[in-house]
């Protein structure tokens, strides 16, 4: 099973995604802002990070770049976004993209 960090400023969204991941047998954690996500990823090693790109305290891409410098540098980072306009596949930091609200079958496939 995988160790997963869900980063979203919507507490309900982050908690629901974490509960879904946990139900599939993964070890999950949440962060509700960019600063917390960077701190958690620096202190622990995650296999996957689901990252909201529109955080209140910082840009999601900036968070991704910081995560890539720490213990979770090899984590698969999956962007969570509510807008097709934010998807820029040229950004090398992001490994995959998932539109909000994520469909459970898409989310489950990314957790494999």
Largest sheet: 5 strands, parallel
Number of domains: 1
CATH architecture identity: 3-Layer(aba) Sandwich
**Radius of gyration, whole Å:** 12 Å
Q: Let me know the number of strands.
A: 5
Multimerization state: single chain
Overall, the morphology is globular
CATH class: Alpha Beta
**Low-confidence runs (pLDDT<50, min 5 residues)?**
none
User: What is the fold-level CATH name, i.e. the topology?
Assistant: Rossmann fold
**N-end to C-end Cα span:** 9 Å
N to C succession of SSEs: EHEHEHEEH
Percent of residues in helices comes to 25-40%
Give the strand line-up of the largest sheet. Answer: 2-1-3-4-5
Total of DSSP H or I helical runs spanning 4+ residues: 4
Structural class of the helices, strands and pairings? alpha/beta
């Amino acid at each position: 099973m995988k160790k997963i960090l869900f980063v979203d400023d919507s507490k309900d969204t982050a908690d629901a995604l974490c509960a879904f991941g946990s139900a599939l047998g993964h070890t999950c954690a949440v962060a509700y802002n960019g600063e917390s996500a960077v701190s958690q990823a620096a202190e622990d090693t995650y296999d996957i990070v689901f990252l909201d790109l529109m955080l209140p305290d910082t840009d999601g891409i900036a968070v991704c770049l910081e995560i890539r410098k720490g213990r979770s540098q090899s984590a698969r980072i999956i962007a969570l976004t509510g807008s097709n306009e934010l998807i820029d596949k040229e950004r090398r930091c992001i490994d995959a993209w998932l539109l909000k609200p994520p469909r459970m079958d898409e989310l489950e496939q990314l957790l494999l």
